[in-house]
Amino acid sequence: MSLSTVLSHVDAQLPAALDRLSGLLRIPSISTDPAHANDCDAAANWLVSELKSLGIKAEKRATPGRPMVVGHAAGPGPHLLFYGHYDVQPVDPLDLWHTDPFAPQVQETPKGRVIRARGSSDDKGQLMTFIEACRAFKDVNGHLPCRITFFFEGEEESGSPSLIPFMRDNASELSADLALICDTSMVAPGVPSIASQLRGMLKDEFTIHGPRIDLHSGHYGGPALNPLREIARLIASFHDDRGRVAVEGFYEGVHEVPAELLRQWQSVGFDEHDYLSSVGFTQSHGEAGYSTLVQQWARPTLEINGLWGGYQGAGSKTVIPSEAHCKLTCRLVGDMDPDSLREKVRKHVEDRLSPDAKITWDQDLEGSPAAVMNTARPEFEAARQALSDEWGREAVFTGMGGSIPIAGYFKQILGLDAMLIGFANEDDAIHSPNEKYNVESFHKGIRSWARVLDTLAR
Amino acid sequence: MSLSTVLSHVDAQLPAALDRLSGLLRIPSISTDPAHANDCDAAANWLVSELKSLGIKAEKRATPGRPMVVGHAAGPGPHLLFYGHYDVQPVDPLDLWHTDPFAPQVQETPKGRVIRARGSSDDKGQLMTFIEACRAFKDVNGHLPCRITFFFEGEEESGSPSLIPFMRDNASELSADLALICDTSMVAPGVPSIASQLRGMLKDEFTIHGPRIDLHSGHYGGPALNPLREIARLIASFHDDRGRVAVEGFYEGVHEVPAELLRQWQSVGFDEHDYLSSVGFTQSHGEAGYSTLVQQWARPTLEINGLWGGYQGAGSKTVIPSEAHCKLTCRLVGDMDPDSLREKVRKHVEDRLSPDAKITWDQDLEGSPAAVMNTARPEFEAARQALSDEWGREAVFTGMGGSIPIAGYFKQILGLDAMLIGFANEDDAIHSPNEKYNVESFHKGIRSWARVLDTLAR
Questions:
Q1: Domains identified in chain B, total number
Q2: Is B306 within 8 Å of A295 when comparing Cβ atoms?
Q3: Are the Cβ atoms of A320 and B303 closer than 8 angstroms?
Q4: Model confidence at B153: pLDDT above 70
């Protein structure tokens, strides 16, 4: 049968699909709270049962934490791995909810119909868009259009401690041609988006050691090396007066945004003024010559996240402390290498240390490169076209300022490119009271996946 | 009778004087601990009785806290006000004491005889040097050589909350020609010292406000104004690369040390290398062109005492905080005016603020000018000669890096110049376990005061 028959079926089945989603939303699968371990188990069972109802071989798989769900559907076409998570955030403060977070309701709002419940957007509603698209193919054609491996975890909201070991232990079972992830937002309402570049991250922390002990500033103020002044000077040296990072070699591996991608980004209606003024700024304070959106998606940063030393209590204390501390993170883009970057940042600081200042670095290191998807693969352009067709406006390859570790893990552990397509909106209140998912997101999300699966199957 | 008779009497009476001091040391007059309020009362009574035994009209005077002791001795010559304090620091950690802190013992040590007890140096031993000198005059001549007002407080170790109100309420009773204070150290062992200039202090605190709320550094890193970077840049701007404070007009009112005073300072055997290396430094980090001693005594400073913002816990948090905080103190010398200096420091910061950064300043302000004694008064040079005669080496007018508020209060409230003469040594372990006072300090201290009183009486 043709795609249009499948899409019509999706339209007709929307009330039933919302009912099924509600069934999953009723399960309070809060992964971080051990009191809800049974509920996470119940959500996993629910998904296994849902997949089996599509004729898919599926099972719950134990981990030291919450269980995984893995399902395998035979089919023609390419082999896809679909990822989502069934666990949800805690609901407190509960008194700010206007409805029971685990009693989903479809409500009319000034901005259209929504389904309101914890997890409606993050991520139960999103993952169900994919399952419902599969159900439509199954109902209409009797089988799925592609070979698909389903992979759901139940610890995404609590740090995914079991994810990497499970992926390593089951790498061959989870192998595929391409990963699909439905856990992201649209860049603006109604603008279909494929996140094709996620910034990486480097974390580091250092302590400046000055005098052997805390000193009295009346006795040693002046002659003493004050670690607070030292650390301020070092931090001030990280950036030049045009907002560029002054660490030698920092920008190695950074690429300018291709003109075609820049054109797509300029089309999304990102309002730099609104974005900045919403948090109290009248202007951008970042790298000169780059728009705020380009800075967020495609430029590296070095930011200070914590800084402390000396006396912080009420009143004053005339101390020159023996130590000062700094926590920093870098966001990485393009081909920037976290290990090499760490060396450069550390060298920058150590080259500028005053005599008698000593430095210690945190040994608990973390670093991940940027995840830049290979959008030259034909599947990416095909999916972009499918999304454009569904939403009636050009879909865009977007960047993301934050990091989504799962995309990096797919690449590192399974060697898989990931295509991140999501239909959430920025106002969905994920992690907050009164979380909702637009019924439009759910409905057009299902239709979007139907179109994407149809085009990938060709 | 002649001075030499008085001095011989002091020598002969030393064992008895040590006994009397021991009587005072046995009273655990810890002012900060309400459980010892009665002990403070007992120490005040002890002093009243001691003064009365010299024929001095003395009484305990109630305050909202611990009592004052005021005594008046008629006499020829100038009118002197002598200040000391009978309260002591707490003794914990008690297990580090080798003897009972309130069972004074005279001990032989490799560095000579000491009397060991809490308060032996700070300040009971010191104040008793003056009383014992008076006793010697009384015993030998039947009267004191000068008119003397005795003024002892019992809250010096707990912030002196009653001192200023008491001085204001009793200003005429406490008026005199010159104040004498015995609560300081000798600049080096065996080097008699008159502290003639104490640095003043300005305290201030500011908060830099950036974004309206804490931001995610993945989303806003770069375009956002990061208060931690802002405050580091501001702090780094306070000093130039020669260690001078870069605040415009900061050095107004600062005078170079007169050549004669510098000569005295150079004679004291201050070992810059030892002073710095004892706290871990191989060199001075202060103002180029000034010795460490001159920096400490006669140069102003601007030091950062506390600095904080963002995340300080374990691990990392990708936050751009909305605020950053800084506590600072300046040390003032010469004629620097604290109010004017505060304006200059604030202007320096505000002139350098980035757009969108806001600043708030602490409103709980404190500032005191330097206390520079009028050493041109003949009493100062006379006292210096008397001390030189006693110790067999030239006495010096010294500076002090820290502040002794009492000297400023005498000037502000009573209009009195103060002469600070003390016989403590840096190794006396005041405020620490096993506090001691050298018997030499006690003995020669009594003799020193006898010589000073004798010369002032002329």
A1: 2
A2: no
A3: yes
A4: yes
Is there a contact between A356 and B215 if contact means CB atoms under 8 Å apart? Answer: no
Indicate whether A266 belongs to any domain.
no
Q: Which of A78, A17, A301 is nearest to B221 (CA)?
A: A301
Cα–Cα nearest to B81, from B171, B200, B186, B198: B171
Asked if residue A217 and residue A84 are part of one domain, the reply reads no
End position of a domain, from candidates A320, A344, A368: A368
For residues B115 and B125, what is the distance between their CA atoms, to the nearest angstrom?
9
For A236, which of B219, B233, B355 is closest by C-beta distance? B233
The first and second tokens of residue B326, run together, are: 């800084």
Q: Give the separation between CA B158 and CA B151, rounded to whole angstroms.
A: 17
Three-class secondary structure assignment of A162-191? CHHHHHHHCCCCCCCCEEEECCCECCECCE
CATH no. for residue B391?
A: 3.40.630.10
CA distance A24 to B366: 63
Same domain, A103 and A177: yes
Q: Is A244 on the interface with B (CB under 8 A)?
A: no
Distances (CA, A) of B225 to A23, A281, B141, B286: 45, 8, 76, 31
Which of A336, A353, A368 terminates a domain? The answer is A368
CA dihedral A375, A380, A385, A390 (to 10 degrees): -130
**Distance from CA of residue A332 to its chain's centroid?**
15
> For residue A334, what are the domain limits?
200-254+300-368
Which helix (H) or strand (E) segment holds residue B23: the answer is helix B14-25
A304 touching chain B per CB within 8 A: yes
Average pLDDT of span B423-427: 93
Q: Do residues A347 and A380 share a domain? A: no
The interface pTM score, or ipTM, of the predicted complex is 0.87
Residues whose CB falls within 8 Å of the CB of residue A322, separated by 6 or more in sequence, listed in order: A209, A210, A211, A212, A213, A214, A215, A227
- Residue A403 carries which side chain, given as an amino acid letter? S
CATH number at residue A244: 3.30.70.360
Same domain membership, residue B246 and residue B306: yes
| Domain identity same for B70 and B194 | yes
pLDDT category, A315, cuts 50, 70, 90? confident
Give domain status of residue B432, yes or no: yes
Q: What is the pTM of this model?
A: 0.86
Residue A261 lies in a domain: no
Residues A120 and A208 occupy one common structural domain: no
- At B190 the pLDDT is 94
- Per-residue tokens: B404: 């002794």
Q: Kindly indicate the confidence band of residue A1, based on its pLDDT and cuts at 50, 70 and 90.
A: low
